[in-house]
Prior knowledge:
The strands form four sheets. The chain has an eight-stranded mixed β-sheet with strand order 12-11-10-13-14-15-16-17, with helices on both faces. A six-stranded mixed β-sheet has the order 1-2-3-4-6-9, sandwiched between helices.
Amino acid sequence: xxxxxxxxxxxxxxxxxxxxxxxxxxxxxxxxxxxxxxxxxxxxxxxxxxxxxxxxxxxxxxxxxxxxxxxxxxxxxxxxxxxxxxxxxxxxxxxxxxxxxxxxxxxxxxxxxxxxxxxxxxxxxxxxxxxxxxxxxxxxxxxxxxxxxxxxxxxxxxxxxxxxxxxxxxxxxxxxxxxxxxxxxxxxxxxxxxxxxxxxxxxxxxxxxxxxxxxxxxxxxxxxxxxxxxxxxxxxxxxxxxxxxxxxxxxxxxxxxxxxxxxxxxxxxxxxxxxxxxxxxxxxxxxxxxxxxxxxxxxxxxxxxxxxxxxxxxxxxxxxxxxxxxxxxxxxxxxxxxxxxxxxxxxxxxxxxxxxxxxxxxxxxxxxxxxxxxxxxxxxxxxxxxxxxxxxxxxxxxxxxxxxxxxxxxxxxxxxxxxxxxxxxxxxxxxxxxxxxxxxxxxxxxxxxxxxxxxxxxxxxxxxxxxxxxxxxxxxxxxxxxxxxxxxxxxxxxxxxxxxxxxxxxxxxxxxxxxxxxxxxxxxxxxxxxxxxxxxxxxxxxxxxxxxxxxxxxxxxxxxxxxxxxxxxxxxxxxxxxxxxxxxxxxxxxxxxxxxxxxxxxxxxxxxxxxxxxxxxxxxxxxxxxxxxxxxxxxxxxxxxxxxxxxxxxxxxxxxxxxxxxxxxxxxxxxxxxxxxxxxxxxxxxxxxxxxxxxxxxxxxxxxxxxxxx
Length: 710
Ligand code: 3H9
């Protein structure tokens, strides 16, 4: 059994404790250990009941996800493992009780459902999050959960993967008793008492697999399943697992348990071997890998951040202030004019009120958060702030002036962050006497919602400031990714060729709406033209003007968006851009844009043609990949998976594709290179293959392998 599972007896109750930190995943050895425990306690006449509990901070967070890759690569057979454990728990002659704190997720919740009873601390969460990994519950969760919680709840939990707290689980019959207290000791004592109570009750112990009362009929389940399908088609567009999870829950209603579990096993396998599952598992581990900085280990000293000051109450500054106060960090929010300050604060309130209407926050929470923001027209109190975040207009001279002033007021040891999205952090830092304290915190709009935080390390940024920023990102509930200081950093540097190529396609004859649809069908949240209209076409125009070095002489330069801007078509905010917008922001194709594109093509000698959809997709997505490869070889991203995380969390790249670099790996780098070379032949300069792409493709390797070798 090793150290992974420990057995003890407390007041006549056998306690099986899983000790597999950090999250007690069901790694090899854990199911075997639990099984041995159940068998030995069942055989022990001195034991009346059995409690299954997790040591440390949690119950069981599920199967060991690392093992899935071994199964799909043929290194390992999927054995009966967890299922034998669940059968043993359910068929035990003595009452079995799962004692839940922290998380009972995936296989953890399935193990708990095998127990006759479940007790939980109020703070505990239970869930079947498998769909987030592109699979479905595979240890009978789709069959037992509807029997415990009813079909509607099981559909919701299995198809969306969102966890619920103990109180809700109690209401739905997933948890039998909520134990008061917040620590492991209280949970254990409560679980042992509950188990002893059940053992002495003389009543039969319920088996979830045999409790059909909540299932209802297939006719009753059908509309629930249809509604669940409609919802996931919208919320998890393009993903296969959520729909498959619904099929499996539906099978629980239409088939006896013994048949339903077979159906679940077939579907589980189909999902596990899918590319989507590999992509989503890649996304899971990539998010966690991004936290690992080779020269800034997890335990590197960092600074306390208890208070913040934000300069600029515009869209970004306001969203940043909300992110801070949502994490419980008070913010001084400064603007230059009363009007701008009032507008900024009003927008923050409006955003919060929308969240109250949507049920995300309570009105009380909002008032508390608003009270943590101190709007001000001066920088009073900035000298006490632990971090000062600059979020003003994207202009180098202005930012340098502001950082010069910040240098004069900030206390020694304060972190000085700029929210620039493209400008050089080193140049901004040069305006201070302490470049080691300066770092980029590139939030994405809306900053209070978007999960990504690009953390830009300047040449002189201190390691302590990097460590502080990475820890702060987690506190703000963001996914922090460390990147180097190059023009546009990682995200926008890649986004630029992506959008440039989309414009070229439109100039060459692809309809803007077709370009968008191809990307939407690929799974993107929005196509590049619609994104341009949303962000404002003038933003790109300004960047092109501010950074003329982006287009060296002799290179093709996109002209369409500048021409649209000249007509005052800045996008949604002016009612027209690539599209025309109705008063309700509805989007319409515009023949005027088609005419403009034809004119531009004629004036610039661009041949217009029918462009196949696969070319549209390859040109925009491989533009990302080729630039990503350059960024990697230049060392501005630590790993290709960091680039994927940036695109998944900051740019709406479809999660089931795993990110642009992972997607390229799934296509095969040889094929990607072939296409890039073809585009290079036809379109010249911008398509020069990145040397790293060529090197990996020619070696039959992948970005993933490159990451592993670093
Ligand atoms: C499943 O159960 C299928 C079943 O139906 C059975 C079929 C037969 N495995 O996230 P954190 C690692 S599918 C392996 O930073 P937190 C993680 O990589 C599974 N490793 O902590 C990280 O490693 P490192 C269903 C795992 O407190 C470390 O633990 N379950 C697993 O922010 C800490 O993780 C899920 O999908 C795992 N299952 O959040 C749950 N889980 O330090 C997935 C974590 O080296 N896990 N690790 O980077 C989570 O959602 C979060 O980890 C959790 C804790 C909320 C539990």
